[in-house]
Amino acid sequence: MGRKWNNIKEKKASKDANTSKIYAKFGLEIYVAAKKGEPDPESNRALKVVLERAKTYNLPKAIIDRAIEKAKGSGDENYVELRYEGFGPSGSMVIVDSLTNNVNRTASTVRSAFTKNGGNLGVSGSVAYMFDSSAVIGVPDKTLDEVIEILLEADVDVRDVTEEDETIMVYADPDQFHAVQEAFKNAGITEFTVAELTMLAQNDVTLSADAQVQFDKLIDALEDLEDVQQVYHNVEFE
């Protein structure tokens, strides 16, 4: 797969740590997940996934607790999950997932981010067919053979197991996310460098230096939007 997930996460975490926007985004996502079902991760699968992701970004417990308490209480804010698809410089492909309480505002700001940074917003389905939904789990301090053995003993189906930046990365179908984590936790592994449900491009592209600069500006502009939760793309980082 070769997506260098640790580098991508570290780049994003470093950028977001300076603005604290990652905290606000996770707080909202936790609130929405808890509001949809029981505010208990053991009985709310969506909430459990968000909390596992948040753990890899070292999200403060106070923010988690505040979001869950808000969902338990009188919080009546309604948020809609929206997905936008578009094209960046040199035909690069981008998927934007958002949570919003103002659909018109989000559509306008996402469209503006694309058009101001060398891209254009596409219609639903224009890009997503070139991506696959995937669970990604990063396991530190283990060898490739050790991870494969754990998965085989637990009889868990995965798509691929690779070594990337001294971390073993496991790629699986989204519905295997919890099964993969449980297999590792039963083997005594409780900390993960990555724990994501994501969209992986079927084919990555490499941009010219100029196009890469413009593309980076597009991604930064999208990720800076208050309503945007996740941005996926098919550009290979050098």
TrEMBL record:
Residues 3-73 form the TACO1/YebC-like N-terminal domain. Residues 79-235 form the TACO1/YebC-like second and third domain. It is found in: Cytoplasm. One of its GO terms (biological process) is regulation of DNA-templated transcription. Its main location: cytoplasm. GO terms for cellular component: cytosol. Keywords: Cytoplasm, DNA-binding, Transcription, Transcription regulation. One of its GO terms (molecular function) is DNA binding. It holds the Pfam family Transcrip_reg. Belongs to the TACO1 family. YeeN subfamily. HAMAP family: Transcrip_reg_TACO1, Transcrip_reg_TACO1_YeeN. PANTHER family: TRANSLATIONAL ACTIVATOR OF CYTOCHROME C OXIDASE 1. This is Probable transcriptional regulatory protein GCM10010918_27680. It comes from Paenibacillus radicis (ex Gao et al. 2016).
